[in-house]
Amino acid sequence: MDESVEDKARAAALAVGIDLPAACVPGVIDNLALLASHAALLDRFLAEHPEI
Amino acid sequence: MTIAGIAADVRAGRCRAVDIAREALDRLRADPYVAVTQVLEDRALAEAAAVDAIVAGGGDPGPLAGVPYGVKDLFDVAGLPTTAGARSRIDAPPAIQDAEAIVRLRAAGAVLTATLNMDEFAYGFATINAHFGTTRNPHDSARIAGGSSGGSAAAVAGGLLPLALGSDTNGSIRIPAALCGLYGLKPTHGGLPLEGVYPFVDSFDDIGPFAADIAGLRIATEILSGASLAAPVPTRIAILGGWFADNLADDMTAALARIAACLGAGTAELPAVDVARSAAFLITAHEGGTFHVPALADHALLYDPATRDRLIAGATLAEGTVAKAQRFRTWFAEQADRLFDAWDVLIAPATPCAAPTIADPTILVGGQKVPARAHLGIYTQPLSFIGLPSLVVPLRDCGPLPLGLQLVGPPGGEARLFALAEKLERDGVSGGWPAPGL
């Protein structure tokens, strides 16, 4: 596993008050990537439609 | 027996609510579908006896007299912990009072008999529950029932109960109703009482009933809403294309074509539905995750890993991203409003295909196999995203397994959806699939 990705996941969880157990790390990383893809689609659309 | 049939017999004194409750309790105890989480024998017999006492005294217990029903395990039931399908809540403090929906059904004579299985914290479309088990589809026990209200759907589809309540945030009533061959209603957002229902995502949460016939669904909905739902049969009907026509199995494509011909329906398209689904995903993950942060910080490892990791990731989403999703939501709702200037009812598939197998709970989206648990809602999620009412009708003659369509109206448009569903049932196009063995 990419250490920087794992560190980012741990830091993001800690920022909301969750000390991420090791068992959660792979699943959280996968879900962060999925959410990032949804956020990217939303960002692209809003960039193309500044009136929204 | 139908909801209306049971109530008519009990009100007329032709049969006793206690006898009907006992028969339902026997079926629930023998549940072969992993639909039931708790059988409420003492409570059911007491409520049924109270109904019989009213009849014996010359009174009218109400339009649901003696009708046994169950609730998804996230409705507060006085004296019981509300588990929301979670192992971590089995020892939660018992609810002090019933959820408002239960109060209303009881006042109409219905008899609460069971709590029913669900995805943990309602976060899934499959009712694959790490603690309470995977609910099986009564029409093929090797397949999922859909979720997250899968226990409610399986209990009705399997003939254990004539009526059940579920909740729907992104499709959790509509998907299991479609996969199990039932009618199911997701109301206009906030249209039915949410008091005493364990929350998932405030922006989208709703409750609604399941039934095998449209008359029964109407009675339950009118009791829950406290309103009569009368409207003429709508005539301006369109099939939603674009996003809603992609990824369909052949049986569903054929079914939509038959419906379009039967109704003389036009076609309509909503813009940017893919973005709507993504925005719904983001808001769901963030609101759901944020609600669970205190519990996740305390006992994350008691969660089902598939639920837990989604919730944690969602909790970390930046507020700015969520604000953008909400901004898009306002715009998307305006686009839907414009469509309803031209059309009374929009029709969309509830799912792309029939129920996936439990051994391989995946579906094809964009030619890729993806988990059904997260993706079965591709056609439901963009519609509940903007709070539209959606009534699922089960199709007849659509193949070996149930399929369902969403009848979608503008906010507050439930009455026209019932009028159209009743026409489709009269015309023999839709109808609840008979329970196996009945």
UniProtKB/TrEMBL annotation, chain A:
- From which domain of life does this come? Bacteria
Q: Which organism is it from?
A: Sphingomonas natans
From which lineage does this chain's organism come? Bacteria, Pseudomonadati, Pseudomonadota, Alphaproteobacteria, Sphingomonadales
- Protein name, as recorded: DUF4089 domain-containing protein
Automatic annotation (TrEMBL), chain B:
Tell me the Gene3D superfamilies matching this sequence: Amidase signature (AS) domain (3.90.1300.10)
The superkingdom of the source organism is Bacteria
Q: Which residues form the Amidase domain?
A: 21-228, 312-417
Q: InterPro entries per the record? A: Amidase (IPR000120), Amidase_dom (IPR023631), AS_sf (IPR036928), Carboxybiuret_hydro_AtzE (IPR014087)
Database matches in Pfam families: Amidase
The name under which this protein is listed is: AtzE family amidohydrolase
